[in-house]
């Protein structure tokens, strides 16, 4: 398991600014209390445009109310902008729509999924 | 513009099986009449899991009714499975939900977007 993790670490590191994982650490406990990641998709479409995909946004239930989720989203969104993306997107549940609207996002489409396992 | 296109071509080529663009060509005209792409997102989450993201599915309006969209989706979905993804996802409009349901997908979440330009 540790070997898998290390392999993945080096795979992601090799992607440089195209894959960023943001974390907030509680310095007193050393625990990670919020995280979110982004990867940059490169297209031929939209004049060889780039799209930022925000994934895996989680805030520890003991750290709610500190606006950490908003800070993570603001950081990842700014990263996408600096990378030259024409848009940044994410998928979320209906219950989280209001939160993302407060972060400046709008609903556009629906997400479809097919599971293999 | 051509230089941009070639730069992007080599960037995408370097991603190997992590980024595939599928096309259907009409051999008589030499025109591309259907396309769709997939890229493979690598996570730490889900036991260092992988997710296939299907993007940019388009069928020429003169080539409808030939099930080319279904073939493109089947090819990209199978690619995700072979790459070891635990799921494949895509975003689409409400009007296209029925098509993707026929392809074995289910709606799960909603897509949120923020445009920079």
UniProtKB/TrEMBL annotation, chains A, B:
Enzyme Commission identifier(s): 2.3.1.4
Known catalytic reactions: D-glucosamine 6-phosphate + acetyl-CoA = N-acetyl-D-glucosamine 6-phosphate + CoA + H(+)
Keywords, alphabetical: Acyltransferase, Transferase
Pathway(s) this gene product operates in, as recorded in its UniProt entry: Nucleotide-sugar biosynthesis; UDP-N-acetyl-alpha-D-glucosamine biosynthesis; N-acetyl-alpha-D-glucosamine 1-phosphate from alpha-D-glucosamine 6-phosphate (route I): step 1/2
Keyword Hydrolase: no
InterPro entries attached to this UniProt entry: Acyl_CoA_acyltransferase (IPR016181), GNAT_dom (IPR000182), GNPNAT1-like (IPR039143)
GO BP annotations, alphabetical order: UDP-N-acetylglucosamine biosynthetic process
Top EC category: transferase
Molecular function per GO: glucosamine 6-phosphate N-acetyltransferase activity
CDD domains in the cross-refs: NAT_SF
N-acetyltransferase domain: residues covered: 1-117
A Pfam family matched in the record: Acetyltransf_1
Superkingdom of source: Eukaryota
Subunit organization: Homodimer.
Family recorded in the similarity comment: Belongs to the acetyltransferase family. GNA1 subfamily.
Protein name: Glucosamine 6-phosphate N-acetyltransferase
Organism encoding this protein: Quercus suber
Gene (UniProt): GNA1_5
């Amino acid at each position: 398991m540790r070997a898998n993790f290390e392999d993945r670490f080096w795979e992601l590191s090799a992607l440089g600014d195209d894959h960023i994982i943001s974390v907030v650490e509680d310095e007193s406990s050393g625990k990670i209390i919020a995280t979110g990641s982004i990867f940059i998709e490169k297209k031929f479409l939209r004049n060889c445009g780039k799209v930022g995909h925000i994934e895996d946004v989680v805030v520890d239930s003991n750290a709610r109310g500190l606006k950490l989720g908003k800070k993570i989203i603001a950081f990842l969104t700014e990263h996408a902008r600096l990378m030259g993306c024409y848009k940044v997107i994410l998928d979320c549940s209906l219950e989280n729509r209001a939160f993302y609207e407060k972060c400046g996002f709008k609903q556009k489409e629906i997400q479809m999924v097919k599971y293999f396992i």
